[in-house]
Design a protein that fits this description.
By secondary structure, this protein is of the alpha/beta class. It has two domains: 102 residues, 3-Layer(aba) Sandwich (Rossmann fold); 99 residues, 3-Layer(aba) Sandwich (Rossmann fold). 35% of the residues lie in helices and 25% in strands. The strands form two sheets. Strands 3-2-1-4-5-6-7 form a seven-stranded mixed β-sheet, covered by helices on one side. The protein has a two-stranded antiparallel sheet with strand order 8-9. Helix 2 links the parallel strand 2 and strand 3. Helix 1 runs parallel beside helix 6 and helix 5 crosses helix 6. The chain is globular and about 50 Å long. The protein binds glycinamide ribonucleotide (GAR). Glycinamide ribonucleotide binds next to helix 1, strand 5 and helix 6.
Amino acid sequence: MKRIAVLVSGGGTNLQALIDAIKNNYITEGYIEIVFSNKKDAYGLERAIKSGIKTMFLDPKEFKSREEYDEYLSGKMNSFNIDLICLAGYMRILTEKFLDKFKGKIMNIHPALLPSFGGPGMYGLNVHKAVIESGVKITGCTVHFVNKGVDTGPIIIQKCVAVDDNDTPETLQKKILEYEHKAYPEAVKLFTENRLKIVDKRVRII
Ligand code: GAR
């Protein structure tokens, strides 16, 4: 059984999708050991508590630097023997040292088809605004492994969503979230069943 940690900063609907996928026995080879947040009032923490999952709020103000914060977080990951770290709306860039320690074990979900519409500043509604302004007809979501770049890691799963002429950033966000809630459990299921193999930049599903 793989032990999963989920890192959230906000609403946690993707966390909920993972919780539900485990409850409904879609994911059978892993479970959520703990949910961390850098925001005290993140609703994701409530969702975890409601499902009987351990939570931890780590206050950035109590640490001198991002390095110290991530060092502490990585100690916690080790003490809980975490096999997979899922970023689910975690709005903090992880330090290089942390990324090195958990190489190939950190996943993120992004609300666009990477490598388009990713990178620094591309989060939440900013992404959907940029998508609409660009005039593209198709967008979607991407689950990927996290590497040292922002939104540049090996891609595990993508789902497409059409951009309609009358879409607003808000309607797009809503449409895409529905697909995120399918894509993230799929990626986590594959990981927990040891079916993902990273070969250079490609993730093979075996
Ligand atoms: C999701 O749409 C996720 O793709 C996005 O934040 C939202 C979190 O929602 N992540 C990013 O923009 C990362 N660059 P949730 O808290 O309801 O899961």
